Amino acid sequence: MTMPSRLPEPYGQGSGANLADILERVLDKGIVIAGDIRINLLDIELLTIKLRLIVASVDKAKEMGIDWWEDDPALSSGARRKELARENAELRERLAQLEPAREQEEAP
């Protein structure tokens, strides 16, 4: 006579979904985790932290209108090039404004 085991079946056996399936579903649909932390002392609010976590694939995030990484120079080479081009244009403009003043100072 065999006794049923009290240990759960290992992943990949039985009818349970494996980790890859779960991850695929989460990335395909997306998941939002939100929470607030408040620290009060004698009814005086000292600190409030709002936490928002979105886990989704890049395609799903773009569908939801989330694409902040495309404009972040630290994460996107295209955004970095745009920032450098803007900075270069500003410096050229400042230089063009300073050149006539310098020429007037040097004129006898």
UniProtKB/TrEMBL annotation:
Annotated PROSITE patterns: GAS_VESICLE_A_1
Transferase among keywords: no
Pfam families (UniProt xref): Gas_vesicle
Keyword annotations from UniProtKB, A to Z: Gas vesicle
Natural source organism: Streptomyces shaanxiensis
Residue ranges the record marks as coiled coil: none
Family: Belongs to the gas vesicle GvpA family.
InterPro entries from the UniProt entry: Gas-vesicle_GvpA-like, GvpA, GvpA-like_CS
Protein name: Gas vesicle protein
Compartments, record wording: Gas vesicle
